[in-house]
Amino acid sequence: MAFYGKKYLLIVLVLFVVLTSCQNVNKTNVVKLGELSFTLRDGVSKEALVLKLSDYEDMLTQSRNGLISRGVSSDKVNLSLEELGAISEEIDKNYPNVDRFSEKDIEKIKTDFIGISDEQISKHSEKIKDIYTSQFRYELYKALENKNSNGLGFISRGKGKYWNTPLSKEEFWLLFKNPHRIVQTVLATNQAKNVTKSVFGENTWRDKTDAFRHAIWNIFIAKKNFGSKKTRLAWAKEFTDAHEVGEFAYVSKDRAKDKRDWDDPMDYHNNKIGRDYFDKHSKEISRWWWFWPSVDSPSDETIVRDIRKMAGAAVGFYNKEELKSLGGSLVFYKGR
Predict the structure, then answer these.
(1) Beta strand 294-296 with 283-285: parallel, antiparallel or unpaired?
(2) pLDDT for res 60
(3) Residue partners of 278: CB distance under 8 A and separation at least 6
(4) Does the pTM of the predicted model rise above 0.90?
C-alpha cells in the first residue's frame, strides 16, 4: 500500500509541474494594455505591437534579392496581388473581422481578450482593431520573409497576373498597412476581370470594356469589404488611386505621357462613377446600437446589368478637358 501511495503522489506531483509549466507558458503570451488584457497569437512577438510601417520597410527592403528593390527599382515589388492574397488568406482565417463584428467574430474576440464584455468591445473597438492588425502585419511579414528567403514564387517585372504587372510599392504598402482588407480586395479584383471577360469576351484597353471594368471593380471592392458605407467607399478610392499612381513604375517615358493625358483621366473618372453607383444604390442597416451598421447592396447580377447598360452608353472623349462636361457617364478614349 505504501508503494502505491508513493506512486500516486509522484503522479500528482508530475501533473502539477506540467500544468504549472503550461500556465507559465501561457502567461508569457498575455499582454496588458490599459484596460485590455489579451493573448498574443502563437509565433507573434510582443514587438509586433510597437513596430511601425517604416520598421517593416527597412526589414523587407534589401539592396539585392529583396522583396522590395532599392535604388533604381525602388518602385517595384517582386510579388503579385494574387500571391499576396494567397499568403494573407492563410493568416486571415485565424483572425476575427473587426469591421464586421458578427457573432462569430465577437466570440473570437472574447476568447483572445480576457474577461471582455460586449460593452468593452464597443468602447475599445478601435484599439482592438489596432491590436489584431499589428499581429496580422507581423505574421504577414514573417510569411513574406520566409517566402523570400526560400526564393519561392516571386515574379519578375511584367510577368504578373494582375493588370499584367506585379504590385507597385504604393499598392503593396497600402495593403500591408491594412492586411485585413487584402483577401476581399483580391477577390473583388479577380471578379471584376472575370466578369468583364464574361460580358465582353476580353479585357481590353481605353474602350467601353475598360470603362465597364474600372467601374465594376470599384463597386466590387466596396461591396466585398466590410465596415460602414463610408469606410468601404474610402477604401475603394484609396486602393484604386494607389493602383493608378503605381502603374508609372511599369511604363516607358513615352507611355507615361499617354497615361497622364488619357488613361489616368479616363480611369479616375470611371472609378468614381463606380463608387457613385455603390453610394447611391446601397444602404446601411443598423444591427446593435454598439456596433457599426451592415451595408445592403444590389446583387451581383443587378450590378453587372446596370453597369453594362452604362458602358453601352459610354461617351467618347479626345482630351481630358472634355471630361469636365461628361458628368455621370462612363467614358472611353476616342483616339484609341
Answers:
(1) antiparallel
(2) 82
(3) 218, 219, 222, 223, 229, 232, 233, 236, 297
(4) no
HSE on the CB side for 72, CA within 13 Å?
Answer: 1
Q: In this structure, what DSSP letter does residue 113 have?
A: B
What does the block give as the cell for 305? 446589368
Q: Grid coordinates in use for 23?
A: 500556465
Facing residues of 77 across strands? 68
C-alpha distances in Å from residue 19, one per residue of 14, 15, 16, 22, 24: 9, 6, 5, 5, 9
> Which backbone phi and psi does 56 adopt, to 5 degrees?
-65, -35
Secondary element (H or E) of residue 285 = strand 283-285
Is 167 in a helix, a strand, or coil?
Answer: coil
Domains of the chain by residue range: 26-159, 178-336
Closest residue by Cα to residue 246 from 157, 150, 123? 157
Span 203-212, pLDDT tens digits: 888 899 999 9
Q: Which amino acid is at 315?
A: V
Q: What are phi and psi of 164, to 5 degrees?
A: 70, 15
pLDDT digits (tens, 9 = 90+) for 140-177: 999 998 877 654 333 333 334 455 567 888 999 999 99
CA atoms of 272 and 329, how far apart (whole Å): 10
Report how far residue 23's alpha carbon sits from residue 235's, in angstroms, rounded to the nearest whole number: 42
pLDDT tens column, 215-235: 999 999 999 999 899 999 999
